[in-house]
Amino acid sequence: MVKALKDIQVKCGFIGPRNRLYSRMQEMLAVSGIPLQNEMTFDAFSAQTPKAAATFDFLFVDIDGLGGVVKIFNTLARLRTEFPFVPVILVSGDFETNDFDTTRRLLGDVSLRSPVLHASLETALFESIENNRKWCDSVVHYRENIAA
Q1: pLDDT, one tens digit for every residue, the chain (148 residues)
Q2: What is the model's pTM?
């Protein structure tokens, strides 16, 4: 699957319950030798220092397992402002399609429709890195303008 990431250490986090989506993501990532960390809550992730949070290369968020986007909208937005440097991949069966652009950038870098396919996961990993760079640039630009 993710050949370009096969020979480097990649750390993936998962916010949401340990459910079928978690198991499927764990299986797909394992094909490339990429471990998926134990599931955690928003609070557990947010309790980390910025240095510890920065060790995550990708963070998957199970929208459906957390009660839907309306329920966690503010929490997602807070996560993005507190840890803008962590690429966030949103996953939900309610998304009409996979979205690899910056449409939902306030909440995440890319969006995957579940059930997730291998090809979609691979694309999401690479696109989330690029989209996260754009997000970080916009956050820095915003903070500079406020400070001026």
Answers
A1: 455 555 568 999 999 999 999 999 999 999 888 999 999 999 999 999 999 999 999 999 999 999 999 999 999 999 999 999 999 999 999 999 999 998 889 999 999 999 999 999 999 999 999 999 999 998 876 666 666 5
A2: 0.91
Angle at 76 between CA 71 and CA 77, to 5 degrees: 115
Q: Is the CB of residue 60 less than 8 Å from the CB of residue 121?
A: no
* Domain residue limits at 30: 6-147
Environment class of 122 (CB within 10 Å of its CB; exposed 0-12, middle 13-18, buried 19+): middle
CA neighbours closer than 13 Å in the CB half-sphere of residue 61: 27
Structure tokens at 59: 């963070």
Please tell me the total count of domains within the chain.
Answer: 1
Tokens 């306030």 correspond to: 106
Residue 99 DSSP one-character state? B
Residue at 1 is within a domain: no
d(CA 73, CA 7): 35
Contact 93, 62 (CB under 8 A): no
